[in-house]
Amino acid sequence: MIGFLIALLSGALMSIQGVFNTEVTKNSSIWVANVFVQLTAFLVCAAAWIISDRTSFQTLARIEPKYMLLGGAIGAFITYTVIKSMDMLGPAKAVMVIVVAQLLVAYLIELFGMFGVEKTGFDWKKAVGMAVAIAGIIIFKWEA
To answer: How far apart are CA 112 and CA 26, in angstroms?
Structure first.
């Protein structure tokens, strides 16, 4: 249950952050906003690490495969693409498309066992659920 609540909080925070970042971009530039977002995220993470963790950064040298260390770089592109999509589509449409893309890619990662994730079998219920989500985007975007 706690995992479900954390996921709900994560989704809410992503939507709020996207709106905030898009507004910051309107008064600066997309890359200034992105640098600011990543810098403030770094400061918050550094403070949390100092207060609660203190695990050595040398542990990162043991990470295999090394491409798993690209999460921060991917995060910069996530921030960029969220800002652009919210600016171009509006928050609701952008988040719908983003969430469905997340679901689709996450399911494909599980289905094919990519990036060290345990491989799962094809599930018609998940495929139908994805089709319903895509239909929801079409209905939501449909303008009379």
So the answer is: 40
